[in-house]
Design brief:
Elements (H helix, E strand, L loop, with lengths): L18 H13 L2 H17 L12 H7 L4 E6 L5 E6 L5 H7 L2 H27 L6 E6 L10 H17 L4 E7 L3 H10 L5 H6 E3 L3 H12 L7 H4 L8 H5 L5 H14 L39 H9 L30
Parallel strand pairs: 2-3, 3-4, 4-5
Antiparallel strand pairs: 1-2
Helix pairs in contact: 1-2, 5-6, 5-12
């Protein structure tokens, strides 16, 4: 980076979220080799400059576009056991036809990027402060109630694919875990095909649940008591989706993002707080399964000499460090022997 004159913007290096070390580690983890990681990072920095991403939270979208974006039924609903924010999306009822009719792909992508930047700039720092440790990943709960293949047209698929590519290419390793609920039978066939093209670690983060009371009980058991998800939010009729969230005071994430932007420009405090729908946690316990991030353990000791650094680059074992950190494990496949105290 020094050689090429590259620097990470402040929006990517907030200290409460792990600083520059963790930001870089996310790219390394995503591509697993120095060359590919650096290429991904350079592409992201070029994309951020080209699209003026670092200034996007000072540019709210037009109100005539906002009225369509703010209808997207997606909400932040508290935190998981280790402090990761929970994002629940009722995927099957997103009003894609209306969005496609009134917004261009670029206009929608701008709002999508703004929400991702708001998450990185507001939600993650708040989660980190509350947890007492850096948090830079999210738990996704995707509700597929009402999903039909006929409603997922080729135009919509292309639109969604483009939005997903922006997130995957420029916001690496942002997923802590994903829970798919109320999936129709046909989804099992779709998933069997899709997962063949995904990294094994990513597949291990995805958990597919059924529907009804047992689904909800199992999900809450995994998420923990700090979630704001209620049974009626997931176990309701399709036409009632969003009613329970509104009753609980949760604001759709895209709408909350735009409200926050406008409040900041006016010098006001957003009415929904820093992260609407988030539940305060005064303390947290490190999740024993969260082996993905400890940026400090990825860095050589600062006291190393030049020769020692060369040795460190070839093998970490000689310094008493694991040569390779294990992949993140899905909680339901972790070996019982790993369930030990934090000091181990």
């Amino acid at each position: 980076m020094t050689r090429d004159g590259l620097r990470l913007p402040r929006t990517m290096t907030r200290e409460e979220c792990g600083g520059e070390e963790r930001a870089l580690l996310k790219f390394v983890r995503a591509r697993k080799s120095a060359e590919k990681s650096y290429e991904m990072l350079r592409n992201t920095l070029a994309w951020r400059a080209r699209e003026r991403v670092d200034a996007c939270l000072a540019e709210p979208i037009d109100d005539d576009k906002l009225k369509h974006v703010e209808r997207i039924p997606a909400y932040y609903a508290g935190f998981g056991r280790a402090g990761h924010p929970i994002y629940v999306e009722h995927t099957a009822v997103i009003p894609w036809p209306t969005i496609l009719e009134h917004m261009t792909a670029d206009e929608f992508l701008k709002s999508q990027v703004q929400t991702l930047e708001w998450q990185a700039s507001v939600v993650y720092p708040e989660a980190s402060r509350r947890a007492g440790e850096p948090i830079t990943q999210v738990i996704n709960v995707w509700d597929l109630k009402g999903l039909t293949m006929s409603g997922f047209t080729s135009e919509i698929r292309a639109f969604v694919k483009k939005a997903s590519a922006v997130a995957q290419d420029n916001y690496p390793e942002g997923l802590y875990a994903a829970y798919i609920v109320n999936a129709p039978k046909i989804f099992s066939f779709v998933w069997a095909v899709v997962k063949q093209f995904l990294d094994a670690k990513t597949v291990g983060k995805v958990h597919i649940y059924g529907s009804g009371s047992k689904m909800y009980e199992k999900l809450i058991d995994r998420l923990g008591p700090a979630t704001l998800l209620r049974k009626e939010m997931l176990c309701c009729r399709t036409k009632e989706i969003g009613e329970a969230e509104a009753a609980a005071g949760l604001q759709p994430a895209h709408g909350a993002t735009q409200e926050w932007i406008k409040a900041q420009l006016k010098g006001e405090e957003p009415t929904g707080g820093a992260a609407p729908g988030s539940l305060r946690r005064e303390s947290s316990t490190q999740n024993l399964y969260d082996v993905f991030f400890d940026a400090a353990s990825e860095l050589p000791p600062s006291s190393m000499t030049e020769k020692e650094l060369e040795r460190y680059a070839t093998t970490k074992d000689s310094f008493g460090l694991a040569s390779e950190q294990p992949d993140a494990l899905a909680p339901d496949v972790v070996d019982e022997k790993q369930k030990c105290c934090k000091c181990c």
